[in-house]
Amino acid sequence: MKKQTLGAVTILTGDSRTVLGSLDAESIQCCVTSPPYWGLRDYDHPHQIGAEASPEQYVENLVAVFREVRRVLRNDGTVWLNVGDGYARNGGVGSCGPNAKVGNTKKLIQKRNCKVPEVWGLKDRDLLGMPWRVAFAMQADGWILRSRIVWIKKTAMPESVKNRPTNATEEVFLFAKQPNYYYDCQGVREDSGANLRNYWRLGPDASGNGHPAAFPRELAKRCILLATRPGDTVLDPFGGSGTTGAVAQDEDRKAVLVELNAAYNDLAKKRLKDNQTKLKFT
Ligand SMILES: C[S@@+](CC[C@H](N)C(=O)[O-])C[C@H]1O[C@@H](n2cnc3c(N)ncnc32)[C@H](O)[C@@H]1O
Questions:
Q1: How far, CA to CA in Å, does 141 sit from each of 82, 208, 278?
Q2: CA 241 – ligand 1 centroid, Å
Q3: 115 pLDDT higher than 70
Q4: For residues 97 and 87, is the Cβ–Cβ distance under 8 A?
Q5: How far is the CA of 238 from the centre of ligand 1 (A)?
Q6: CATH class of 2-83+132-157+168-280
Q7: pLDDT in the model for residue 49
Q8: Cβ neighbours of residue 163 closer than 8 Å, sequence gap 6 or more
Q9: Which end of the chain is more exposed for a tag (fewer CB within 10 A), N or C?
């Protein structure tokens, strides 16, 4: 495992399922993350999560990662999990679902030109309901599911569908380890001053950062301001281009990022260095 530290952000290269074992128990105040969505993109690594042969295996892998997250989380800590959905497809290489060519990556991650297996309990073109499958499995594994936030995308990915509305939302789940957890309801308010609602109209960020699936800075910022105090440590076990780390820097928090693909960590390193320099001079 390669470890690099940039100011208050530590970047670990490796598989979250093993790397998280090297972190101290109860050392993290909150986890803000977005794992690969099942069957959507190729992150170019044999151990990537998201390329499993079935929805069940994907859910099991995520539950295993978050079990380790629970160990490293402080008892009053929280997890903010952004996860997207997809469709079951029978054959073909359409523009959505397990066989799709999507986004910036040209490779298919699952070349299953076959029938959706009976064991999945799904039919061709069924919405997978993946975010809720993950949420229910996490609940069953001991997490307290406290909120489902709907991220409404200001600019949705175009879809050529004519038989259903275009998808323009994703879920962000808030999980707690225990009933009494740290949550600063003053950290982010509605413009009117009211308590923050569970629908957030956000992003994408103006400047692409070279990662095909970065989430908006504002999404990470809201989670971090609601769930941590200055000086606390934030974890992202699927670090990507380091959005969580950059926002932690901005907000005077520490961060630990874990990412499997070393190329994305190089991207994150450069981004965090630039961000640090910018912060120093503004
Ligand atoms: C949706 S992206 C995260 C993007 C990130 N939120 C950002 O803003 O840049 C998911 C990331 O998880 C990484 N990944 C996939 N499997 C992993 C694993 N087993 N351990 C750690 N990282 C993994 C992928 O390489 C990818 O960069």
A1: 18, 36, 42
A2: 8
A3: no
A4: yes
A5: 4
A6: alpha beta
A7: 94
A8: none
A9: C
Distance from residue 42's CA to the centre of ligand 1 (Å): 10
User: pLDDT (tens digit, 9 = 90+) per residue, 32-50?
Assistant: 999 999 888 888 888 999 9
Give Rg (Cα) of the chain: 18
Q: Residues with beta carbon inside 6 Å of ligand 1?
A: 15-17, 34-36, 43, 47-49, 211, 213-215, 238, 240-241, 243, 258-261, 264
In the reported structure, the alpha carbon of residue 259 is separated from the centroid of ligand 1 by a whole-number distance in angstroms of 6
Tokens representing residue 234 in the block = 């934030």
Confidence of residue 111 (pLDDT cuts 50, 70, 90): very low
Q: DSSP letter string over 84-104?
A: ---B---SS--SSSTT---TT
Q: Give the model's pLDDT for residue 128.
A: 92
**pTM reported for the whole predicted model:** 0.93
Question: Mean pLDDT over all residues of the chain?
Answer: 88
